[in-house]
Specification:
The chain has 353 residues and is mostly helical. It has 17 helices and no strands. The chain has two domains: 1-44; 46-352, Na+/H+ antiporter like fold (Up-down Bundle).
Length: 353
């Protein structure tokens, strides 16, 4: 290129090389930064991303191979086996030595249990009187009667600066009491919803089933823990991730069963999302109100607010699959609530720090 051509060339050719290099590295650096932020987000919310991925793959598979495999596992006691493993591993990971320390705050424990077993079913009863579809009502009823989570609630309480011993005691008591409370509360709420065909629930049979898939594995895990303490310390993180992965498998098996129902009515997904967000928002507000009304100090109120509103997903899915399989929208409410409680409570953790 001669001098005359250079003078008539576009302005970019007249830009000094250092400036071009700066622009190039700025763009590359921005891309790397965006990539790192995406990776950081996925690491933090990988479980939610997994739920979305499983839902998407199950729904868009036109060959129905994915849903067929899920249905086959479900029909061969796949969900029950998975939930037994989940609660056994949860028992292994619970540090029961801290339970006595949690007994120092009886007021906080009682308030949390009241939120879990009284206010949550009460809110579900009010929602059941609204003109939404009965499948959504059944879903929110199932969410309301199950106990608090066994892992994420403890982690979030600690991250928010709360008392882990207090949170642990609430978690164990709630899961033990749920064996006896769920059959009674579920029967009452279903009757209140107006569906007389579902009133006759075998309470004893349900109690035995819940005890078999929740209480027995949990107690076995707690019993084995002292003998495997040193080994567990090395793989605790992997056990937690493995447990959450099994939860994803339970969701996949349940979604496979109700795939056709969801595809026939896509709007039910938006409705389930709205109901789940509304219900969990009510629980968070109730937790804040109760902790302020009874003047719980920082370090004690976190477990009341978070554990009072969090609900375990595997047990609600087990109840839906075992007793209400015809209501696919109920399953969507359970899954949506779990997703949104992780997101909403994650935001609350940052606010309470």
């Amino acid at each position: 290129m001669n001098r005359a051509d250079m003078e008539s060339a576009p302005a970019v050719f007249n830009v000094p090389c250092p400036v071009l290099y700066s622009v190039y590295y700025l763009r590359v650096g921005s891309g790397i930064y965006a990539y790192m932020k995406i990776v950081e987000f996925l690491k933090k919310y990988w479980f939610v991303a997994g739920l979305i991925l499983i839902f998407t793959i199950t729904m868009i598979d036109k060959t129905e191979t994915v849903s067929f495999a899920g249905k086959w596992l479900k029909s061969h006691h796949g969900p029950d086996a998975a939930i037994i493993i989940i609660f056994f591993v949860s028992g292994l990971m619970l540090n029961t030595d801290a339970i006595t320390a949690g007994l120092k705050d009886i007021k906080g424990v009682l308030l949390s249990l009241a939120l879990i077993f009284v206010l949550a079913p009460g809110f579900a009863a009010l929602i059941s009187l609204s003109p939404i579809s009965h499948g959504l009502v059944v879903g929110i009823i199932l969410v309301s009667v199950v106990p608090t989570t066994l892992s994420s609630g403890l982690v979030m309480t600690g991250a928010a600066g709360g008392n882990m011993a207090h949170a642990l005691l609430i978690t164990i008591l709630a899961n033990l009491f749920s064996v006896f409370s769920i059959p009674v509360e579920l029967s009452l709420l279903v009757r209140l919803s107006g569906d007389t065909t579902l009133v006759l629930i075998d309470k004893v049979g349900m109690m035995l089933k819940i005890g078999g898939v929740l209480l027995c594995p949990l107690c076995c895990g707690l019993f084995v823990r002292p003998f495997a303490g040193f080994f567990l310390g090395k793989i605790a993180k992997w056990l937690q991730h493995g447990n959450q992965t099994i939860v994803l498998l339970v969701v996949w098996m349940a979604l496979s069963q109700v795939r056709e129902v969801i595809l026939q009515n896509g709007m039910i997904l938006c409705a389930a999302f709205g109901v789940a967000v509304f219900f969990h928002g009510l629980m968070l507000c109730a937790g804040w109100f109760v902790s302020n009304r009874f003047k719980l100090e920082k370090g004690k109120r976190e477990s009341v607010i978070l554990l009072g509103g969090q609900k375990t997903l595997p047990l609600s899915i087990m109840l839906q699959v075992s007793f209400f399989p015809e209501y696919g929208s109920a399953l969507l409410v359970c899954v949506m609530h779990h997703m949104m409680q992780l997101v909403m409570d994650g935001y609350m953790v940052e606010k309470m720090k």
